[in-house]
Bifunctional NAD(P)H-hydrate repair enzyme
Amino acid sequence: MSASLPHSLYRSDQVRDGEHKIAADLGVEMYSLMERAGLAVFETVKDRWPDTESILVCCGNGNNGGDGYVIARLALEANMSVTLWSVADPSSVSGDALKAQQKFVAAGGLIVQGTFPDGKYDLVVDAVFGTGLSRDLSGFYLSAVQAINSLDCPKIAVDLPSGLDADTGNVWGEAVIADCTLSFVGLKQGLFTGKARDYCGDILYDGLGIGEEFAANVPASSTLLMLYEAAKLEPKRKSSTHKGHAGRVMCVGGQKGMGGAIILSGQATLRSGAGLVAVLTDESHVPALLARQPELMARWWHENESNEVLNNIFAWANVIAIGPGLGKSMWARKLFEAAVACECPMVVDADALNLLAESPKYRDNWILTPHPGEAANLLRTSTIEIERDRFSAVKELHKRYGGVVVLKGAGTIVYDGSTLSIIDAGNPGMASGGMGDVLTGVIAGCVAQMSSLSKSANFGAYLHSYAADIAAQDGERGLIASDLLPLLGNNIKTELR
């Protein structure tokens, strides 16, 4: 990711329709945009890989392939060794792409068809598929993508890697694994979440001279929450602030033997700025809780105690975070029912989400933080289906359960019913136990300090990943959830990246 990217993201149909309209309004021919796109990629190649002498350009028969023909012609004119492989029948090319093809041939270029051209290349340009792909690759096209991936050299994707869904980030069977993707006019939302993160490499952007006008006239389908925007969300404190102003949070969870999860949540709630934090857990965890973090207050409740006792415990809080290590025992179920009966804002995670899936409820003042497996349980579907279209999944979760939904994973998505945000932070080192428990606490701490659940979810999700990026600066391997805790109080610094 890059701080230089626009924060507005779009669906492919928005870009396709919008660029035609904006180009017409500005008096720009579509073929001119194709030439600009090809030049942008070629300039990127020269900038990133200045020693490139031999280049393989893989073209389809659409406009994406037309961009490829422009790139190949420019490489020829720069005295590079150019092999252009047409994955589709070159006679099927039409429109602006045909014009680009003809110019390439007129410049002395040769079109290779059929079998993948063996050879040693300094660079591969992927210009096979554009944004229109909507089914799994098969046959010759599948073999083509596999052959491209087998080459041991850098690969640059034109607009998006072939085989990737521009709208969802779904991989249609297989996709080109690019080192760099240069996207045009409007950034496609599918590039930034889920499995797409494994295929795009560094994402770059070029508006082709119409990007500003496009952004001014086409509403974004989602936004990329980046460093500068996240810094603006950070809660500010008056000089006269005391702990009562920063909220009282009750973190609920930790059935017997599972105390670590809720202790992490409690610590993260404190570290993210909440004024007072209590942890309601199994009594056996209290010594470890207080030894680990004496600033936390300990609460416990036994099944044989009355609901009135439990309700009095909850009455202290103005924010509840529930789920980490909670389990699904009768003790857990009673805690969950009592928490839901409270009117204060909630952050719901882990086993609390699984209990919610058993007995669905809708409310406006909670934040749900499922990973794909928990989301699948909430929607009575499979994890595969959730990951196939994370945007639709997060919208359906909100439709059924309300509030704000934070769908975790690579490119975490936050949806509040009107605005979709993708978190532009985080790293693979976060794939370790306890990270979600820390996120629960961070978001709960933000809710305690901020009036907006949506802003709390967005800032909390960003802060969590931001801290992980700081912690991983010397390496991602072995990153653990508690490494984030001392970093959660750091102000968002725009010079981190």
